[in-house]
Amino acid sequence: MEEEININKPEVETPVSNESQTSNVDIKALNEKIQKESAFVDLLTMEMEKVIIGQKHMTERLLIGLLSNGHILLEGVPGLAKTLAITTLSKTIDAKFSRVQFTPDLLPADVVGTMIYNQKQEKFSVKKGPIFANLVLADEINRAPAKVQSALLEAMQEKQITIGEETFKLEEPFLVLATQNPVEQEGTYPLPEAQVDRFMLKVVLDYPTKEEEKLIIRNSIKGFPTPNCVLHPKDILKAREVVKEVYMDEKIEQYIVDIVDATRYPENHNLSDYKNLITFGGSPRASINLALASKAYAFIKRRGYVIPEDVRAVCHDVLRHRIGLSYEAEAENISSEEIINGILNNVEIP
């Protein structure tokens, strides 16, 4: 088992092996590069924390989505700074920001845009919708019907929008950051599974601590400070390429595959009790996103390689919305969180 922990020691040269991809990777040099390239993370976090008190988990997940090109679904009761966090992030990276308030009477054209007739020119022209931005806040996304939510699918997956006969590429970076309220169910629509799977992370927010809430009260009364712009969109695109270079050992890849496989076939991982609790597990998109999020998390932690703790740290956010619960699970009040905990406790750690 000694060879398995070499990736945890950046100061030691990676052993050369004909059977391993590590032979072409200089972990020490890569680690130094990542530490240098990730220097902006602390600065960005500091600017975010000027406005957002507490909610470190949310701030970190927003950075992971930004660095790994993944959309984020934020779930929490009103007043937990979901919208404020996203608008603050857009200011710190000098990105074009737009907000769409989802309502039951919203139309797809209100999101993506439409064709309008120009009487002077006697022809139709395209009027682009709010989707044409770097960061798009889809506020209370579960309040709009499925046809509006599905209008986002092309933008989220292909990063393009088709209006009439014209197709427009969306400017990078492009992220959809959606919020939903889990409490008030009247007038809400469950998101289609196909759309939910497009969200890289589903982040569940909790109440602040008492000390944090005192600071929130003070800041609200005297006025929130304005965050400084510390990055530009082109810097984010450059950082994304560096994140892809973060080293992931084949054993970590196998660990990710085993975790996702356990959501599909729990009986193969000594989790037979879960077989009747899960109707469907994570798709290959879950494995891809778990790998990307793990690399981004390692980058944020100023490390050039992924360790099992990185995978475990982001696992709940990547998988909680990708596990279908059966009626039996709901009857027994078993949540996807408990199932993920059981999987992480049973799947062998490399």
What's the SSE blueprint?
Blueprint: H1 27-37, H2 40-51, H3 56-68, E1 71-75, H4 82-92, E2 97-101, H5 108-112, E3 113-118, E4 123-128, E5 135-139, H6 146-158, E6 160-163, E7 166-169, E8 175-180, H7 193-196, E9 199-204, H8 210-222, H9 233-245, H10 250-264, E10 278-280, H11 284-300, H12 308-319, E11 324-325, H13 327-331, H14 336-346
Parallel strand pairs: 1-8, 1-9, 2-5, 5-8
Antiparallel strand pairs: 3-4, 6-7, 10-11
Polypeptide structure, described:
The protein has helices at residues 27-37, 40-51, 56-68, 82-92, 108-112, 146-158, 193-196, 210-222, 233-245, 250-264, 284-300, 308-319, 327-331, 336-346, and strands at 71-75, 97-101, 113-118, 123-128, 135-139, 160-163, 166-169, 175-180, 199-204, 278-280, 324-325. The protein is α/β, with parallel strands linked by helices and 350 residues long. The chain folds into two domains: 40-234, Rossmann fold (3-Layer(aba) Sandwich), CATH 3.40.50.300; 247-346, Magnesium chelatase subunit I, C-Terminal domain (Helicase, Ruva Protein, domain 3). It has a five-stranded parallel beta sheet with strand order 2-5-8-1-9. It has a two-stranded antiparallel sheet with strand order 3-4. Strands 6-7 form a two-stranded antiparallel sheet. The protein is globular, with a radius of gyration of 22 Å.
